User: What shape does this take?
Amino acid sequence: MQAAETLPVGVLRAKAESLDNSILFDIHKDYEAMPAFDIVSTVLQAISPHLGLRLKRDLKLYKRNLKTVLVNLFVAWDNHHSTWVAYSRDSNQYKAGSRYNKLGISRVVIQIMDALRAAGLVETVNGFKDRGTGIGKTSRMRATDTLAGIFFDAALVRAFVVREVEEIVLRGPKASKRPGLALEYEDTARTKAMRRVIRRINEALRAGNITLDITIAEREALKLRLGHEIDQTRTQLQRVFNEGWDRGGRLYRHWAQELPKEFRPRLRINGNRVTEQDYGGLHIRLLYAISGQGQPDGDVYAIPVLAGASADTWRDKCKIVLQAVINAPDMENAVRGAVKGLNDKGLKTNRKEVEWMVQALKKKHEPVKQFFNSGYGSALQKTDSDMAVDILSDLLDKGIVALPIHDSFVVERQHKAALVDAMNRAFFGRFGVAPKIGEKY
Assistant: This one.
């Protein structure tokens, strides 16, 4: 990525927004029907003069990588002919020989992308980053009319696009405020069993025809909000653990989980309207249940509004602060994390306000204060993720497809009662007390 030329902030923002019409390059994409093999051969012949001797060293390697590049370009083109594919030119991002890279996508993809450009099959925009403002984008590519014609003649269809992912992910420690790197691990009976369960859930999600019923104008607003297009071929969940098999384990990476909450009511499953049922205040209620305390009454986030603070956003702030107090290993990290989390969400705050909220929340939840500033949040995620897997599996046994959104679940409206029953049993079966379940829509 190159440093951006010196431009006014407004021009930089406009340049960046013009590239929001994009999907992210996905090393897991494949195509499971014969036309893709014919296209690979056709395109490989066109770009081979631009690859030189490198092509002769490993023909299979280049074919495999080219296929994934072409499938990404097809998905973008099929979304809209103007859609870009955003990709990194850092060769370290493409590491073959990992369980997390089942298709073996390697650094040769960069050579392939350059060869496609030289052959007139893609147009590209170099990535840029303005150091002063932080405004920037990674590199972009999209199919030219020539390549689009090849896609059209081959009659490719999105239904045959598949993703080859590792369903069980183990991450190492966080570094420099970034998620931990994915770690290699040896399979055990436990990881194999977990993988079988997630694969069953993913097969149902793919077959469940989950779509988004929004207008063109709403799609543009969503794209601006996210900074990229939604890629609806990302239909699989991955269960992500943190530093060990007893920490984390939540289900991530389905495209619908990326939607802001105001768009989720527009989801459709099998063409039908949906409902979302939510565990209210799940983590703090889990702490009461784990410690053998009775469940707290009322709103677990309700504390008096500090003088001068906005009452409209107070509860949202309290929710983020309480989560920080549970997750952080000490008070300093809790306060710092809460301040950053609130400001990142546009909930203006300061250290003094957060410190006051922390003390008020500790007083409110005195019975479970031993868990505060304990770093226990990741262990709680393991508990709630086990519950989520049980709920999804329970519903599948009844032929019902459900989409998890962390502490809540989305199903077709006619399956609301079955979902609430599964959520109740997952909680009560572990702790012998009833959870608080609410309807979001």
Observations:
- The CA atoms of residues 215 and 221 lie 10 Å apart.
